Amino acid sequence: LYFEHRETVQDLQNTLLTQILPNVVDEHGLDKAARERAEEWLHDDLSIFRTLKRHKFTKAFALESLRSILIWRLSHLKAQDPDAFPPSPLHVLPPLATDILRRPILILRLANLANLQRDPREHILRTVEGLRINLHNINASSPPESPLTHPVLQYILLVDMENASMRNFVRLNLDLLTWYIHEVSPRYPGMFGTVFVINFSWTQSGIWTVIRLALPESVQYRIFFPSKETLHECIRPSSLPRASLPSLDEEETSGASPSLTDASGDNTAGRSARRKIASLAHVSPRSQYNPFYGYPIGPRPYSLLPASLPYLRHGRRRKRDLIRTLATLWWEKWRSRVSWTVSFLFVSFCVRWWWRQRRNSMFLIRGEPH
């Protein structure tokens, strides 16, 4: 798809560099450094392609959107010292750690969001901009004699829920999430592909319920709650750090997970593979991977995807499912005591019945005439 529309991307770049950018420079009185930053972004053909794809390859709409993004970048992304920002909770795994589609892997530990500054908007902007530059460097680092047959257009995101609580999410409130969806995501379209939520427990379902309210439906379709086996179908076990999946028996990926600034480097190309993500239709209602613990789930109705977001199978939380779950949990907790109590009562009843029968027999024997 990228090579099919490559000429359109080059035409857009040429128009932006020769016509749009000079007008924007004169209109806003930009200095040399700001112009160089703008030119660097305009030479990123993958960003141009993602914007073109977002507008369904309509050149006029894409050009208008790119112009507005250019002006937005000049007003929101200023040159600053990267050391001025605290470490990011978002980590990029080493270049060789990819999924089966050769996409780089990001890990977001939700519990670390509490370490962010009070208003981390600028920090988030810098992080996403660094991810864009990293994708550009991955594709530019391939040698001319063996270029990438399929450019790397997206990341795959692993959201680690271990030790996460509602308190961590309150720290990153809904206003900040809404701001990212409406302000940042349209300026960086299509950078994130599949999102896997790992180490998820039913006790954290409240966090997912709150987050789901702010996510558009197009994003919800890309979020999955995989089992370990399903995750290994999409990502090789050697590419996953044991810190995120402690149950892995394989060796840990060599080297610690670097920060965003250390993630750029060579990316070994290979044939891309295509696999479907296993459906969650058969996940048990009381499985730890079920975001609606106690209620049966399945793929979203009428979805054309091979595996869509987990969805309440009956469209609502039924009382009968709640009663069944509570009864099952009660039985699992008190089963041994109930069994011993019933056994004791049964034995007591048998002994009492035997004793009564024996006593009645003795009375009958004593009452017989000699």
Automatic annotation (TrEMBL):
SMART domains: SEC14 (SM00516). Residues 78-252 form the CRAL-TRIO domain. Signal peptide: none annotated. InterPro entries: CRAL-TRIO_dom, CRAL-TRIO_dom_sf, PITP/CRAL-TRIO. SUPFAM superfamilies: CRAL/TRIO domain (SSF52087). Pfam families: CRAL_TRIO (PF00650). Residues 242-269 are annotated as: Disordered. It comes from the Eukaryota. Keywords: Membrane, Transmembrane, Transmembrane helix. Residues 254-269 have a biased composition (Polar residues). Coiled coil: none annotated. The chain crosses the membrane at residues 338-355. This is CRAL-TRIO domain-containing protein. The lineage of its organism: Eukaryota, Fungi, Dikarya, Basidiomycota, Agaricomycotina.
